[in-house]
Write a structure and sequence with these properties.
2 copies of one chain form a homodimer.
Chain A lengths: L16 H15 L10 E2 L1 H8 L3 H13 L3 E4 L3 E4 L4 H25 L2 H17 L5 H18 L3 H16 L1 H4 L3 H20 L2 H22 L5
Antiparallel strand pairs in A: 1-3, 2-3
Chain A binds a DNA duplex (30 and 30 nucleotides) through helix 3.
DNA sequence: ATGAAAAATATTGTATACCAGATACGGTCT
DNA sequence: AGACCGTATCTGGTATACAATATTTTTCAT
């Protein structure tokens, strides 16, 4: 039988409206700058349905997920509101992040190849060249990307999943946390030390460095972010 | 005005059918012994609706949550299946647990009162008296309770929330992980060391002890739990 | 004009009807 | 008899209708 190749793509059958709505809503919340506006932000369910072009059911199921993950809060017969984390909750998130990333770094010393660690270093060098004093905003992105790279390199799916949601909130307040240039500079130095420890494959050292580096941020939030409450 | 107490309970108005269904389903999944049966376990949506006495909508919303949390997997037009974690996923869960509980222990050394640490010790003593060689199953429960107590004492809501879901899976394979008496005995000794370190408020030491103790379990699963896949 | 009561409105929670795809079974053609 | 196709049925996905309640507006009596 003359079967010629037809090159059909697998057509993503897994993407239901619910899944798409979830992705769209989460993306929208991530980008909206939760902590910029002073007032509570309310989401109109019907309006969202119309915007997404689907009925309430998939939107509601997506909302239920976002509520469980702490992004929104649904008050019966009142509305759905975007959640603003309190200072304490932010600190808890940073603390969990510190615990997970330090474990990720430990895993890297045990499992990563030399090439993978070299990739991390090159990524880091690119970042530190890019944004120094001038573009703090860009550097803030690079900063988070550095940490995400470490977590990704650990090759632990679960740590990646958990921290992904944390970073959505962390990113939202990133602008404030790097307001002082000192932090940016110290940050680069500490990152260099972390890379060095990874290259030496010193598990205990790199774990301590990563943990303390991130807990520094927690302490900084504790001191300077009273406006959150 | 003569207002006498009437002792009416707050009648949880916040508990919607969706919430109740979520709790009921999660509880059922937790207790069903996921890894006992060899075959895939399928849940019938409409059957569950009838059993719970509600319509499909709240059950479906609850299912969406459970799917996001990794307890079930919904295949369109096929059915909803209870998820069996692979060996690798179990090890990842134990690894995350190790990271979070060691951080929790660190927090205890910084924030807990002497009385709280004493409570932990008494709890531990009660456990070790209770189940020794004979009732390994009970000891396994006590074992997990010990770890949960540490996490609870850290007073970090987020760590509590994350580990709660992990423990549902961990508990499901606990019976296997304590099959060797050595593990139970070694476990008690290590727990004693952890308590001692907490009393000395030695953050670095207790962090290391908790981490290594839990990572021991990860290594044990790696070696002896091939049957999971 | 003002206050309260009542009705209209808005919004989420729930139930149900319908849709589309996947499987199993049975019939038909070879 | 066996391969193949159509249909019947079962399943989860989606849309919509209905219910319950908080809010806002309207209305009417004082």
């Amino acid at each position: 039988m003359n079967t010629m190749k037809f090159a059909v793509e697998p057509l993503d059958t897994g993407a239901s409206f619910k899944t798409k709505a979830y992705a769209a809503l989460k993306s929208a919340i991530s980008q909206m700058g939760i902590y910029d506006h002073p007032s509570e932000i309310r989401l109109d369910e019907r309006q969202l349905c119309e915007a997404l072009g689907v009925s309430r059911t998939p939107v509601r199921e997506a909302m239920a997920l976002l509520e469980r993950e702490g992004f929104v809060r649904s008050v019966p017969r009142r509305g759905i509101f975007v959640v603003r984390k309190t200072k304490r909750e932010i600190i808890e998130m940073v603390t969990v992040w510190a615990a997970l990333e330090s474990m990720a770094a430990r895993l890297i010393t045990q499992r990563a190849t030399d090439a993978e660690i070299r990739d991390l270093e090159e990524l880091f060098l690119g970042f530190s060249d890019a944004g120094l004093d001038e573009h703090l905003d860009e550097y803030s992105d690079a900063n988070i990307q550095f940490h995400q790279s470490i977590i990704r390199s650990s090759d632990c799916t679960l740590i990646n999943e958990i921290t992904e949601n944390l970073f959505v909130h962390i990113r939202a307040i990133r602008k404030i946390t790097i307001q002082q240039n000192d932090r940016a500079h110290r940050s680069i130095v500490q990152h260099q030390h972390i890379i060095d420890a990874l290259k030496k494959r010193d598990a205990d050292l790199v774990e301590r460095l990563v943990r303390d580096h991130t807990l520094d941020l927690a302490a900084h939030v504790e001191k300077h972010c009273d406006f959150l409450d």
